[in-house]
Structures are given as C-alpha cells and as structure tokens.
Task: inverse folding
C-alpha cells in the first residue's frame, strides 16, 4: 500500500484545505467570566477516516476540511487518516495515515501532532473506526495529545455497553469542546454520560447550496423525464429498511404507474466481506416476487459528492425507511433537505429534528402501509408535494456549507489557546492567598476553590517551601516575615522525629502526625529549606536557628540515595557552603549527590536520551540544577557541564512547538514523555525557572533568561489551554492545567510554586546586565527577550 504523505507546503500547492498558523483564540481570565478573542489563524489536526475510503465519516471529514478551506481559510487543517494496514486506498493530501490497529502508530502520530505546532486536534469519533474492542485504542491516543481536543460524536448510544460507556466518558473527560449534530445527541451526552452542556455545541450536518426545482433538468440524462422518481442513497445494509420501501411499491404503482424507485449506493464493504451481496440480491428477489422489478433501478456505486448531488436533484421524493431509531446523523438526509426534496422517513433521531415543522413527512417504523400512504399523498397532490419541497429548501438554508463552515470555525476559535500579549513581571504578587491558607500551626495543604480544605491538614513539603518564600518575599513587612517564618520554622522543627532520625511529613488538622517517617523527598526539601534559610533569611536569629537544625538533620540523610531527594538536599547544602565556607555534612551531600547523578546519566544516556532515568517524572529540572549548583560551589566544572547539558535537554522536551512551556504532566510521571501531557502543575514551571536562574549564574548565557520568562508566562496563559492560573492581586494560583482547562482549586503547593517562581524570575532580571541596543535574544510575542530583561532590570533599579 502506498500512502502519499504531504508536508503543509505541499498541501497548499495541491489545493488542499490547509494554510497558515495561529488562530482566533479565547482565554478565560482568572476569577472572571470575560473572554478575549484575538484574530489570527489556527492550525488544526483532523483525525478520522478520509476519502477515498467509502464511509460516511470519511465523506464528512473531507467535507469539513474542504469547506473550511473555502469559506474560513483562517482555519488550516491537516488530515490524519485512519485505515487498516494493507488497505488498498491511496491517500493524497493527508499529513499521515494511522494504522488504526497499531498502538505504536497512535503513539507516533500523537508525537507528530505534538511536535507539529497544532493549535487544536479535531477527532471524529465512531466506535468502529478505531482499533481494539469498541475502538478503545482511541483512549490511549487522546491521552498523548497536548493541544486542545475537539470531538465530534457521530453516534451517541442511549444504551451503551459498559466498555462503550467507559470510552465515551474518557473522551468527554479529555475534550475541550464537543460537537454533535442533533439536539438529541447533546441531551443524551448530558443526561446519560454526565457531560457539561456548556462544552457541547450542536452544529447540524452541512449541506450543499444549489438552486431549487431543477428535477426535470437532471432527470433527462437518466432518461426519466416526466416520471415520478423516489430515491434512497447510501451504503446498503439490513438496517436501512429498503425492503419496506420495495414492499410499498405495489400500492404506489397502482395509483402512479410510471413511478420508479432508485436505490443508489454500494453495499457496505464490511457486509460484502462477510456475506457478499446477499442483502442486495435478497432485495432484488423481493422486487421480482412483488412484480415491481421493472420499477426498481439500481446504481451499485459509491458516488463522489458531485454525482450524488446530481442524482439527488433528479428525484422528487427522498425516502429513508431506516429501522434503527437512534441514528443521530444522516449526511444524505441533510443533502436531500438542502436540495429541496420531499422527504418521507421513519422517525430516527436526525429525521425527527431535521423534518420538524412540516419540512418532511415522518412515518411509523416497520410499516409498509405508512410509507405507501405518505408517498401517495404527495404524488396525489402536486401542490402538497411542491409545498413540502419548498419548506425543505428553506430549512436547508440553515445548514448550507457557508453556515456549517462558519460554525465549525467558531468552534475551533472557542477551543484553541490564546498567547499572552503582556506579562506583569514587575507587579509583585499579593500575599492574601498565602496567608488565607495559614494558621498558627502552619500552611494547610489543599483547598476547594480558594477555601482551605482542613480535612487534609498540613505537610512538611509545603511548610518548607513557605519558609523559603519568607526568606525572599517582597510583599511582607518585617513583622509579618518574622511571624510567619517562625510559624513555618516551628513546623519543620516539630516534624523532626529524633527516634527515627527522619522527618515526618503529613499532619492532621488536629496536629497529630499521620506517620512516624515521611517521604525521602520531604526530608530533602526540609534540608533545602534549612540551607536556604541559613544563606538568605534577613534575620540573624533565624539564620542561626536554621544552621542548628541543618547540623542536626543533615548527617542522617546520608542513607538516602533517591535522585530527587538528593537533589533537593544538594540545593540546601550548596546554600550552606556558600554562606559558611565549609560544612562537613553539606560537603558530603554534594559529593555523594554529584557522583550519583553523574553515574546515573552515564548509565541511562542514549543517542536521543540525555537524562538520568529511563523515564521522566516530577521536578525534573531539579537534578540538573543541583549539579550546576554543586559544580559551582565545589569547582567541579564537569558537573556544571553535565547540569547545563541535561537542563538544555529537558527544557527542549518541555517546550511546545509554538514556543510555550509544556511541562511533563502528573499523568505522565514514570511514563514516556510524549504519552501524557496532563495534568500540568505549577511546581514544574517553578523548577524550570529556578534551574534557569542557576544556569544563567553558571554560564552567563542570556538564553536562560528567555527560558525562565517562557516558563513564567505559563502561569499567565501561555500554556496548552490558554488559561490564566495566577492572580497577581491575591497571589493565588490554580492547581494546574488539565485537558479541559484550569483546575479551579488553589492549594498551597500551587500558590507557593507561583510565588517562588515570581521571586526567581524577578531576581534573575535584576541581576542581568544590560544588553547592547543592537542585540536580541529571541522574540516573545513581539518583545525580544533581551529588551524585556533590560526593561525589567531598569524597572527594578528605579524601584
């Protein structure tokens, strides 16, 4: 099988629906319902079956991309076509072909999309077009995709199997926006699957715009002038109920002998593979037995769109006697209505909605006599027939392609993220959000919205971070700094368990401990906070206290060799050595940690993998940062070089093609990076910023300023969902970026991550030397990094 793969440039030259990038985008403001639209272009990856494959979704995907290119070219589309390995189809004008039964191919495609700078991914869903039971391979695929996800549900089942329901709920949990083509589908998603109505949009199936009343003109090439023509089109199969229309023909021909029934369309390929042409042959035999075979005309082909429209124009009455009442979409029904055909149909979902208000005639399902009566009523009364046609044509004006394309473009606009155009780096965050999470015991862990959730109590991790914040915050008075530093320091002090020679981590709200020994990470973070306080606390008594407790707690840490816990402790030990000149246990921590990290890198390194472990996890930049700081303190240039190299590598993997920061999401911890881009957490941006500060200090390379500012912009909407997480006024920060937007909670970890990130980036900009006026260091939405850094430096110099 040959699949022709086109680059975006070749797609343009081939006249396919693609174009430039960056779309009209919308970003929700923090704690405000306001939205801001910015004009531009969007690049969208469309996933679905595609022509020349013969199925309704393939036709829909082709129509969607073609009509957007014609009517809304600001939305550029690349098609990723689903098919089976060994398919005979030769695809043109597609970005790639996905082997729908191959997990590895889904993984490669997700990575291609993530690295392709797409502003949104638009997935066409039907259970049968993806691999695995009920097409469940789609779940792993969407978990890997970072861009906002739009899903069109072509089928919404009222009574799904447990696995089908699981798949639909998984898709809904990932989708930024959902499209259905009927109100019934929207209501069913909400009532049966728990979807939010605010994320579901009803966009009726699009249809062509052709002149009204040209039946005789198009009957002539078919030699049907002057005859009544009834028609059904589509892939043939038992669910279409065509036998009922054939059985109704004797009663129709008795009153209107010249009438013909045209059955246009090939038998469904899956049915042919299983049963051959048994269904079609059975219909033909039925017509022969009833004596109407001369009035049944067959066109056993899957027609291209233009020929199909020509044949539709030749008919007077379009019939869909379908047996199943749950069909939510029929593209040919939409076409027939838009062309002004009198429609007789059973009341399946799409027909009930589209034919409402006299647009067409609904008949009882499985009722031959109902079909015959409805058709005869139209043919008996030409005025009635023509009035029904005109009502259909008027209704069809609401679904013609320009309207469909405009609605689709608006759906994309509401889904894609908007880049920030301004960044409040000089504004100092308030502390209201910090202190709202605190009491006399310390800082509470979690919140529901902006309200502390006392059920989860406190943890050492957050109180250690809070103590570091008190060392550097510019938003507190000396009295507030001393008060809260003492509170957080007291928590750390009480967390030490001398009987175990370790820190405890989690404390209940009633001040009882949940454990006797906490995590190795919390131990490392406590040492980091103590070391940071030794070097940075404004109050000398606080520095002495921190030195005392670092002396007590650092020696027992020698039994811990977790890479991240060691990295946290190394950052604290570097502070102690920088402040004190020498400290035996601090020196030992750096020696042991630097040696271990260098060994891990040597063992795990591959040509395309410059990292300490075989997978990525949380706080990744802390390991390079620890090596950089240890190298500077101990004069180990080899460690500094390793730290810079690995930080450069992880930074590249945490930068989206569009240039914004895209951290490893918590769902991806311990997984291959391209697999799970969500949930993205504020601590990851903080780690990237503070590591960039260390890298700049070690190298003087101004690109690290760019990287720090890029990561800081993540808090203000430069992220995969365009959501603003941080509030400068209160100092709060949302708990992260999810597939559907921002996590509304504002826990201690997120608030402290943002506050410390701000302190780090502003400290970096203060320390940066002025650039020459003819020097730039990369552009950020119209502002060069160098010029931004210089403006920030000058601003702080004048403060």
Result:
């Amino acid at each position: 099988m040959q699949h022709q793969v086109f680059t975006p440039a070749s797609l343009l030259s081939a006249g396919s629906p693609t174009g430039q990038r960056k779309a009209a985008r919308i970003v929700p403001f923090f704690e405000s319902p306001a939205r801001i639209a910015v004009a531009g272009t969007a690049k969208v990856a469309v996933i679905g079956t595609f022509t020349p494959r013969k199925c309704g979704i393939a036709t829909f995907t082709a129509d969607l991309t073609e009509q957007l290119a014609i009517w809304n070219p600001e939305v550029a589309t690349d098609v990723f076509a689903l098919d089976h390995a060994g398919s005979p189809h030769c695809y043109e004008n597609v970005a790639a072909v996905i082997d729908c039964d191959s997990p590895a191919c889904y993984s490669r495609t997700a990575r291609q999309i993530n690295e392709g700078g797409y502003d949104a991914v638009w997935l066409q869903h039907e259970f049968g077009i993806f691999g695995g039971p009920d097409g469940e391979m789609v779940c792993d695929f969407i978990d890997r995709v970072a861009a906002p996800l739009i899903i069109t549900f072509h089928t919404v089942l009222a009574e799904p199997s447990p696995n089908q329901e699981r798949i639909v709920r998984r898709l809904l949990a990932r989708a930024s926006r959902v499209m259905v083509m009927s109100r019934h589908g929207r209501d069913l998603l909400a009532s049966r699957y728990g979807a939010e109505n605010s994320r579901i949009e009803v966009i009726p199936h699009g249809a062509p715009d052709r002149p009204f009343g040209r039946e005789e003109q198009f009957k002539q090439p078919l030699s049907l002038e002057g005859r009544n023509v009834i028609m059904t089109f589509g892939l043939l199969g038992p669910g279409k109920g065509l036998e009922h229309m054939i059985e109704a023909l004797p009663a129709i021909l008795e009153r209107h002998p010249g009438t013909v029934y045209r059955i246009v369309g090939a038998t469904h390929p899956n049915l042919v593979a299983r049963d051959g042409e048994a269904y079609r042959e059975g219909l033909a035999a039925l017509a022969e037995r009833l004596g109407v075979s001369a009035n049944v005309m067959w066109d056993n082909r899957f027609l291209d769109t233009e020929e199909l429209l020509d044949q539709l124009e030749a008919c007077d009455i379009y019939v869909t006697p379908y047996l199943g009442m749950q069909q939510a979409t029929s593209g040919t029904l939409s076409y027939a209505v838009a062309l002004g055909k009198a429609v007789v149909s059973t009341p399946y979902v799409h027909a009930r909605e589209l034919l409402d208000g006299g647009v067409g005639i609904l008949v009882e399902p499985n009722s031959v006599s109902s079909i015959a009566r409805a058709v005869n009523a139209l043919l008996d009364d030409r005025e009635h027939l023509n009035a029904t046609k005109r009502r259909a044509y008027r209704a069809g004006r609401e679904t013609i392609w320009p309207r469909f394309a405009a609605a689709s473009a608006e759906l994309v606009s509401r889904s894609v993220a908007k880049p920030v155009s301004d960044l409040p780096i000089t504004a100092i965050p308030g502390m209201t959000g910090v202190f709202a999470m605190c009491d006399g015991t310390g800082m509470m862990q979690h919140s529901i919205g902006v309200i502390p959730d006392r059920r989860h109590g406190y943890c050492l991790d957050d109180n250690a971070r809070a103590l570091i914040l008190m060392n550097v915050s510019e938003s507190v008075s000396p009295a507030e700094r001393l008060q809260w530093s003492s509170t957080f320091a007291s928590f750390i002090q009480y967390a030490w368990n001398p009987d175990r020679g370790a820190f405890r981590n989690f404390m209940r709200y009633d001040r009882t401990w949940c454990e006797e020994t906490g995590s190795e990470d919390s131990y490392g973070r406590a040492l980091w906070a103590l070391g940071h306080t030794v070097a940075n606390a404004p109050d000398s008594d606080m520095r002495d206290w921190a030195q005392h407790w670092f002396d007590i707690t650092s020696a027992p840490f020698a039994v811990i060799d977790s890479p991240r816990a060691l990295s946290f402790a190394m950052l604290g030990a570097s502070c102690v050595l920088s402040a004190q000149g020498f400290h035996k246990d601090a020196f030992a921590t750096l020696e042991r940690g630097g040696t271990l990290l260098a060994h891990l890198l040597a063992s795990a390194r591959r040509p395309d993998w410059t990292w300490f472990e075989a997978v990525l996890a949380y706080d990744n930049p802390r390991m390079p940062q620890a090596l950089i700081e240890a190298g500077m303190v101990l004069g180990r240039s080899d460690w500094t070089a390793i730290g810079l190299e690995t930080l450069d590598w992880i930074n590249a993997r945490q930068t989206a093609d569009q240039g914004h920061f895209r951290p490893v999401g918590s769902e991806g911890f311990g997984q291959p990076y391209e697999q799970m881009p969500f949930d993205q957490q504020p601590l990851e941006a903080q780690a990237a910023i503070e590591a960039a500060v260390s890298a700049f200090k070690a190298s003087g390379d101004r690109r690290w300023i760019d990287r720090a500012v890029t990561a800081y912009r993540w808090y203000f909407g430069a992220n995969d969902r365009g959501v603003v997480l941080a509030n400068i006024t209160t100092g709060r920060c949302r708990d992260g970026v999810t597939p559907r937007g921002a996590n509304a909670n504002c826990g201690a970890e997120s608030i402290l991550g943002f506050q410390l990130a701000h302190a780090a980036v502003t400290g970096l900009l203060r320390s940066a030397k002025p650039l020459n006026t003819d020097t730039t260091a990369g552009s950020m939405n119209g502002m060069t990094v160098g010029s931004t850094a210089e403006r920030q430096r000058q601003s702080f110099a004048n403060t």
Remarks:
- Confidence is low (pLDDT under 50) at residues 1-39, 771-799.
- Residues 8-206 form a domain with the Rossmann fold fold (CATH 3.40.50.2000).
- The first strand starts at residue 25 and ends at 28.
- Residues 189 and 762 are 47 Å apart (CA to CA).
